[in-house]
Specification:
about 10% strand, 21 helices, elongated, single chain, 6-stranded mixed β-sheet, alpha/beta
């Protein structure tokens, strides 16, 4: 199975930027009513800004030139009112769009999280958790400015540019053409910068993802790092990753910052050409002073939004790679899904059958983990799976839970193929306890209840008593209401495992799967737990994976798994009598 590590750049499929931008902007359509209101407010503010130069022209040519103070004062009062309306409208639309953009970010993050929850184990097995977090948190946050500015900046600035250009062409097309001669230079420069910067920002996002993944990995394994005094090595790797991250950021910023100078240079050239052509070629006498002032204002009004548009274009170039990474996960189809027409699995009776099952990971189809495995388990029967590491024991129980899909053959529960029933109805009836005794931050009561959310306090205590966890829980400061972290700080490894056991027990499973479930419990406690298991699981089908053979002597049947096949099958006494693979394993442990 191909695995991406915290020090490896992620591979990313190429998607046209236009497709990503349109997909991102579709989220705005859900808020079209509010956006229409924002656009109406913007239309008013743009109209006010458009007539401002005309007011200046009229003030200079009609009132100042003729000494009409009364008219000038009235015009000034009207302009002040318009300015106040402009400020109020601008503030209102900015507030409304900020609220809309934050709601869209929540929507995108919720959709991404919900989709990640549905992805199969293969997705999580093939990449560090930190890289998933980088997309869920950092990449989503980076879209805020793009969403906000797409309405509050892109639309008004585009409208302003078009309106100003039309007004300038109507008033004096020669002066207008002189002022706009540098636009082709601007377009060429921006295209060149964007093409280069987009690739550099993609690299930067990958380096950010690597850094996040390594930090998460380092903090999760801090006990191992300190136990082996490996702080120096981890610092070395961290500094290397931060250097790569810094370099990627600098490389991208150096190119992206070229947008500003290109705009300023073309703006300056446009202003120069306006006055050069207007004064030297057309003659100063042919154009009024007010007209020149109006055109000077219009040039500023034209190039200011152009500068804003270049800034938005820069943000888009910077953050479009984040949107690409988000949508890439959203477009990752779960390997395991409810098939069309899947039905709800009735209450499990407990019969399990493997019919010529073979399994290989998707990215390594030629490397078979299981090879033509067949067996049938009767309801209430206890099956133990033993064998060397990597033989395929855990794969068998994962296929029962449909965490992975069989490559060939079928897995049946009560005669029904697990692919023909809904995942929720299947997994809700299975009690699964793995080697990972993961606990959630919260109370001990909440952690046990996680096995069945509607479980009562009495049922929680009964489950804890069955696995011998009740006594140590009651010795804690607040008993079942004691707060613990996900690391289970203050609890021993055995105690954490017992809590995980109680969580599985409270789910009342039709089929129980224990994968090295007692590996962290001392022998004395294990004997007590085993008694509780025997009473609680009476009449339930169970699969037990164990390397300590002393824990499986009472199993109805023992499967010896090796090289992806069942090499031997029988009870403890029967297999010892054969003096085969199981006998050799048993002798090696009790020599």
């Amino acid at each position: 199975m191909a695995v991406n590590t915290s020090r490896m750049d992620e591979e990313q499929r190429l998607v046209p930027k236009r497709v990503t931008i349109l997909r991102l902007l579709r989220y705005l359509l859900a808020y079209k009513k509010r956006i229409i209101l924002v656009l109406c407010i913007m239309a008013g503010t743009i109209s006010i800004s458009m007539i401002t130069p005309l007011l200046i022209e009229k003030a200079v040519n009609d009132y100042v030139a003729q000494g009409n103070r009364t008219g000038l004062l009235k015009l000034g009062a009207g302009a002040a009112v318009l300015f106040c309306l402009f400020l109020a409208g601008t503030k209102a639309r900015m507030y409304m769009m900020a609220k809309i953009s934050n709601e869209i970010l929540v929507t995108i993050r919720n959709q991404l999280f919900d989709h990640i929850q549905m992805l199969s184990f293969h997705f999580f097995d093939s990449r560090p958790v930190g890289k998933i977090l980088a997309r869920l948190i950092g990449d989503v946050n980076s879209l805020k400015d793009v969403l906000t500015d797409s309405v509050t900046q892109l639309i008004p600035d585009l409208v302003t540019v078009v309106c100003v250009a039309v007004i300038m062409l109507v008033k004096n097309y020669r002066l207008a053409m002189a002022a706009l001669l540098t636009l082709p230079v601007l377009a060429a420069g921006m295209f060149l910068i964007e093409t280069t910067a987009h690739g550099l920002w993609q690299i930067y996002r990958k380096k950010t993802s690597n850094l996040s993944a390594y930090i998460h990995e380092d903090l999760s394994g801090i006990r191992v790092i300190q136990s082996f005094a490996a702080e120096g090595e981890t610092r070395k790797v961290f500094h290397q990753l931060t250097d790569e991250h810094r370099k990627a950021f600098v490389d991208a910023v150096v190119v992206a910052d070229g947008f500003g100078p290109v705009v300023e240079i073309t703006w300056g050239l446009g202003g120069f050409l306006l006055y050069f052509i207007g004064i030297r070629m057309m003659g100063a006498d042919t154009v009024g002073v007010g007209t020149f002032l109006a055109f000077s204002t219009y040039i500023a009004m034209f190039w200011s939004p152009i500068r804003n548009l270049s800034s938005f274009y820069n943000k888009l170039t910077t953050n479009i790679s984040a949107a690409e990474r988000i949508f890439e996960i959203m477009d990752t189809a779960p390997d395991i899904t409810d098939q069309p027409g899947a039905e709800v699995l009735p209450p499990i009776q407990g019969q399990v059958e493997f019919s010529h099952v073979s399994f290989a990971y998707q990215d390594e189809p030629d490397k078979m983990i299981l090879k033509d495995v067949s067996f049938r388990v009767k309801p209430g029967e206890t099956i133990a799976l033993v064998g060397p590491t990597g033989a395929g024991k855990t794969t068998i129980v994962n296929l029962i839970s449909r965490f992975y899909e069989v490559s060939k053959g079928s897995v049946l529960i009560d005669g029904v193929d697990v692919r023909q029933v809904t995942l929720e109805s299947l997994r809700s009836q299975l009690g699964i306890m793995t080697q990972d005794n993961f606990l959630f931050s919260g109370t001990i009561r909440d952690n046990i209840r996680y096995g069945r959310l509607e479980a009562t306090d009495q049922e929680i205590q009964e489950a804890a008593k069955a696995v011998n966890a009740h006594d140590f829980i009651m010795k804690l400061p607040k008993g079942y209401d004691t707060e613990i972290s996900e690391r289970g700080a203050g609890l021993s490894i055995g105690q954490r495992q017992l809590l995980a056991f109680a969580r599985t027990m409270v789910s009342r499973p039709g089929i129980l799967i224990l994968d090295e479930a007692t590996s962290s419990i001392d022998t004395h406690t294990e004997i007590l737990v085993q008694k509780g298991i025997d009473a609680l699981l009476k009449g339930r089908t169970s699969f037990i994976i164990a390397h300590r053979l002393s824990t499986i002597r009472k199993a109805d049947r023992i499967f010896v798994i090796d090289e992806g096949k069942i090499q031997e099958e029988g009870s403890h006494e029967e297999l010892l009598a054969k003096k085969g693979a199981y006998w050799r394993l048993y002798c090696s442990q009790f020599r």
